[in-house]
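User: Please predict the structure of the protein below. I'd like the answer in structure-token form so I can feed it into my own downstream comparison script.

Assistant: Understood. Taking the following sequence of 347 residues as input:
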Amino acid sequence: MPPRLPLAPLRNLLPFGRGSRTMSSQPTVYVTRPDVDSSGLELLRKSCQVSTWNEALPVPRTELLRQIAGKDALYCALTDKIDKEVLDAAGSQLKCVATISVGYEHIDVEECKKRGIRVGYTPDVLTDATAELTLALLLATNRRLFEANKQVYNGGWKSWAPMWMCGQGLKGSRVGLFGFGRIGQEIAARIVPFKPSEITYTTRTQRPQEAKVVNARYVDFDEMLCNSDFIVVCCALTPETKEIFNAEAFQKMKSNCIFINTARGGNVDQKALYEALKCKRILAAGLDVTTPEPLPLDDPLLTLDNIVILPHIGSADIETRKEMSRITARNILAALAGEKMEAEVGL
């Protein structure tokens, strides 16, 4: 994590001009959720006027447009769409949009760039938590833990049977990682002790030094699809990766392939995934991310037994979420003071 930077008193650094205030007043910040960890809000309240949405649910669009008016900074989450309409409603004095997430596709970064609005996010801090969750989801899927657990409660557990509830082990398997950034590398490091025969990775740019640490080999997309027993998606959502896992991709996978996605739901064509699972084109899948979120209760994926779906809890480690709240607050304070942010999206 970058070293924490000292923040100069905000009242001495805030620029004057259109939308400015007197030297003695405090900058204003709107927080879209009241249930973020209080440590971040306490940091803001020391030098800012803070207002929040009052329910532990995503703020309604109309409320966001009303509350953002005249604010100097916005503290938001993945569930908030920050587009031109919101920025227009905020006014020209808005200096910063900070999201309590590593992803920022919900923010119109180009529009912020045009207006000189700085954008903060929270990378790095959630790397370990997400890698841990990914491994947990992989193990729950390949060893059929949720299927087996249900048998305890529905009477399906009659006695021991030699092949009942058997799953596919990691030992001796080929694991393909789609994406090999910070999270991908940590996932690979956690898989190594399970003794796979090979770890491969697919990225736009090869990372030979990082790959050497976990003895991973670079392969192209088709080779990963055709040869992997496990495929783990840990890439960003970009125009190039949107629904890259489509019907054609699933058709190329091995019939015993287990597909894991803890990155973004938009990387997967979910209708194609459903068909691949239903007709046993692939063995199983584990998802921590879906489109939309939450997944509707009548979604066909929920009718299948060979899938594990979690409610986007990749970073849901207590200390991680607390630090994410603090980083978001420090990003805002740094932006308001005209200083370097801990984690700023390059505009």
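That's the full token string. Residues 9 and 337 are 7 Å apart (CA to CA).
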